[in-house]
């Protein structure tokens, strides 16, 4: 029951955040990480862009979030976003806030834009002050590394990674007013993934002409259906942020809900967010499988979403998937504790196409067939409540020994 996208756009092979017109990106190693992998990066638009942002709901919000809210809140525009990894700049008090604002102003000066046209994002260890001498040196060298090519995007994507194993990028093309419009995205996320927004850093670039308020509306809607429907470990981070920039260089008429191509643009944006969200779930720390939970027949879409997220977030379900154990009892138990209306007499559960529970009664199924299915890289769990028309999809991963190993030594 994954969302079916109408053929209103096409995927751009090898596309990246620099594929939309007018965007450059880059990254370098400034010394925040112990490895030599890039740890400071940026995306820059050649002109100011309409901007939108969605942020973590964690009470302890990192200093960069305040800076980015401030920047977008000034006039709904951004021209650049500066990101560091290796240090979250969270729970660092007034000094952390001052450091985040200094990052904004120093990078703005380095690329010749207004300070409040720059967003700042950070990811990494919580509770440590930034080594600002290294950050300053990195910022000074970053403008020369900005490229309007896949190389620049690759460098940026490397700069935002923490425990991620792979870079996460996607780009699509659609036609608006007879002109090609591109939407691209990049994200990082592997651990502390249980969004009440999107527990990760995500960046969307587009050359479409659209106002900040309209972009904010679409970004929030897309987030609720994608990034807000993934989980790895049940932890929502202090630094989660999704920022979109639309610079208008495609030359279309401004997109509004009344525009004939509004639905196509909205669908393409949701697709970009869904691809990135699923990539984060698949790259969960220690994960070996992408797990998709489809819930249908619920009292409402919101109810279905709550049930899907409860199932996908269950440590027992995730452990069973890792062990290729067709233990539907763990699934039905998660459904029952989701706090949503459920008729205990009408629930069906499938693992892939294998029916394991019908009308809340166990039925005979081929255990060997189920074992082979659960050994695959993607596992789909379908729960049909047979109550009404509500439906939702959530994504996550299995829970493995490596997850504990990675997080037992995160700071070392």
How would you summarize what this structure contains?
It is found in: Cytoplasm. With 412 residues, the chain is of the alpha+beta class.
- Largest sheet descriptor: 9 strands, mixed
Do you know the CATH architecture of the largest domain?
4-Layer Sandwich
Shape: globular
**Structural class by helix and strand composition:** alpha+beta
Output the CATH topology of the largest domain. L-amino peptidase D-ALA esterase/amidase
Average pLDDT confidence is 90
Binned strand content: 25-35%
Measured between the Cα atoms of the first and last residue, the distance is: 42 Å
CATH class of the largest domain: Alpha Beta
Task: State the helicity in percent bands.
Answer: 25-40%
- Unreliable segments of 5+ consecutive residues: 191-199
Radius of gyration: 22 Å
- The H/E string reads EEEHEHEHHEEEHEHEHHHEEEHEEH
